[in-house]
Design brief:
single chain, UDP-N-acetylmuramoyl-L-alanine:D-glutamate ligase, nine-stranded mixed sheet, 24% strand, four-stranded mixed sheet, 309 residues, alpha/beta, globular
Length: 309
């Protein structure tokens, strides 16, 4: 089944201790779509400027990403510039030029309206609600957000999370949204607000999932080289949603497997700048890394033990 994603397409200029790139392809919708496309077809809704090159259009099309929802407006494409130190879990934003993204009003093509799987990437929560009103009864809706919307539009964001199935945020955002420093307590507060399933991304420390009845913890795949964490969270979401759409398995076990696939996809993204690693990736590598991560985290049940002295 296909996935509908609504988010940003951008140019990124990034500096890390391991290199620097300028005006490379980025944006939440791009990372998500590229990752999800390894598992299923993707319909993308976003906006680009007059400066967006045909080579990027050709790349996205080559990944079976439907671009009928990609609008081109007069002006320049969204541009983000950031820097990472040796703590790659935190980016320093140097410049944000919204350009055509500033007036972005998502319009869902009629052919996308019956999408079973919907991902609301990091955009204004009021726009996220507008998207929801244009889609007919999706099976699974997941959403992302960021610290800016948590502080500037908390009530709008609360309305969003009550109308989606899965909220995907990082640990700092979970703490900020709940105003609770402890992640377990933060999760409980967000579930009380109306979040059905909470997935907390913790960078190199892995992922936590919380529901009313369970907690699941998955480690990040251990890597020797990490070049650029930009887009890792959206790549995680793409692998996660892509697996769910591919299998249709939304049971607790299915969601846990989807989290592992999301972690695997994110681990590939950070191995190079922009989408360079994903462009070279093949499905066999994904399966092999999934199996490796499973083997790393497997342990047997507790054997029979004698009474303590």
């Amino acid at each position: 089944m296909s996935i509908l994603v609504v988010g940003s397409v951008a140019f990124d200029s990034i500096e890390t201790p391991f290199g620097k790139v300028d005006n490379v392809l980025g944006g939440s919708a791009v990372y998500f779509s590229t990752s999800a496309s390894f598992f299923t077809d993707v319909n993308l809704v976003a906006v680009i400027g007059e400066d967006f090159p045909q080579e990027h259009i050709d790349f996205l099309s080559s990944r079976n990403i439907d671009l009928r929802g990609l609008a081109r407006d007069s002006g320049k494409t969204f541009h983000w510039q950031g820097r990472y130190g040796y703590d790659l879990n935190e980016a320093q934003t140097l410049a944000t030029h919204l350009n055509v993204f500033e007036t972005f009003k998502p319009r869902i093509p009629e052919s996308y309206a019956d999408s079973d799987y919907l991902f609301l990437a990091n955009i204004d929560p009021d726009l996220q609600m507008e998207v929801l009103s244009q889609v007919d009864s999706p099976k699974i809706v997941a959403s992302d957000t960021m610290n800016y919307w948590i502080s500037s539009k908390p009530e709008s964001l609360r309305n969003v999370v009550k109308n989606v199935d899965i909220l995907i945020v990082n640990d700092a955002e979970a703490r900020q949204f709940s105003q609770e420093p402890n992640l377990v307590k933060a999760a409980r507060k967000l579930l009380d607000i109306g979040v059905k399933t909470l997935i907390v991304k913790r960078g190199e420390y892995g992922v936590l999932m919380f529901t009313r009845s369970s907690i699941f913890s998955a480690p990040a795949y251990p890597l020797e080289e990490v070049f650029d964490p930009t887009g890792a969270g959206d790549t995680f979401a793409g692998g996660f949603m892509g697996y769910l759409a591919n299998t249709g398995d939304t049971s607790d076990e299915g969601v846990r497997r989807a989290i592992i696939f999301g972690s695997v996809m994110a681990s590939f993204t950070v191995e190079d700048f922009s989408l360079n690693r994903l462009k070279k990736l093949n499905y066999n590598e994904i399966v092999e890394r999934y199996r490796s991560l499973k083997a790393m985290t497997h342990f047997e049940g507790l054997p029979e033990m004698g009474s303590p002295l």
